[in-house]
Design brief:
Layout lengths: L1 H17 L13 H33 L7 H29 L12 E7 L2 E7 L7 E4 L1 E5 L4 E7 L4 E3 L8 E3 L5 E5 L5 E6 L12 E7 L1 H12 L8 H8 L29 E2 L4 E2 L2 H9 L1 H4 L13 H12 L3
Parallel strand pairs: 1-5, 4-10
Antiparallel strand pairs: 1-2, 2-3, 5-8, 6-7, 9-10, 11-12
The protein binds dinuclear copper ion.
Dinuclear copper ion binds next to loops.
Length: about 325
Amino acid sequence: MRQRHQVGLGLLILSVLAGCDGPQSVFSAGGADAIQLNHLFTVMLAGAVVLWVSLNGLFLYVTRRRPERMSRKLAEGVIIGGGIVLPMVVLTSLLAWGLSIMPEQRAQGQGLTVRITGEEWWWRVEYFPPGSETPIVAANELRLPADARTEIELRAGRVIHSFWVPGLGGKTDMIPGRVTRMSLEPLTPGIYRGQCAEFCGASHALMALNAVVLERGGFEQWLRAEAAPANAPEGAGRTIFFREGCGACHALRGTPAASAVGPDLTHFGSRTSLAAGILPMEREALVSWIANPGAHKPGARMPAYDHLSRTDLETLAAWLEELE
Ligand code: CUA
């Protein structure tokens, strides 16, 4: 009976731990900072276990022993050794080690800087290559080179958000009127999912983004393409875009659409997700989003375009997908 309980408990723990994996997990670390945070967690946990086990051991020992059979010297040894020296040694070493790894978690900008601004409920993403004052503007997706440290400058629109890509590093608040900084050094190329980690309103839980880590060469190539103006061919889709006033909120570099109210759409079609990480970049999802953004993201500022015919919606969506 007891063995069966133990097997059951083991299976339960395994199934819970299995849920800790995946693209948005601190345990699937793909960056130097996330790996170091995992070390920090393991060492802190080990320290806590050492303290917990030894203090409980001492407690059991002294409560089970008859007082008259305990010498004064032993009693004092237990109190001073177990109650003062042991916690001090363990906690001081943990603190010293924790402080020693802090500087590496700070921003150290020499190369690329990416400015990310938390909006309701999407991310404005601006790339500043070294020495450049004018950013390459994008939105709702972060691309980073592997094996390089990138400085991340964080800002916020109207309310506080928190930037967090668990697989790459720790979280940092984004505060209106202030600039906060962090840096990330991804190691393994791949897609890591990020999520806003500070309650920021109705659609806080629907404010995600993919962080796409590319090999150095691939990243340089991508950044060059991202810097280019939009390839926005003439046609029915373009006519609908401008007729419906999409350019009053969105920018398409190289066209009359130049507003910064909503996400920049210059290379929209090359992104891996839609509406800040919550929908797949697919025709049907895009049609549904344009027709009624509020149905997917309550409180989204983009108005519904449900007065457009199904054909117009599809034509517009197909044209937007071509903006690679
Ligand atoms: Cu933005 Cu929560």
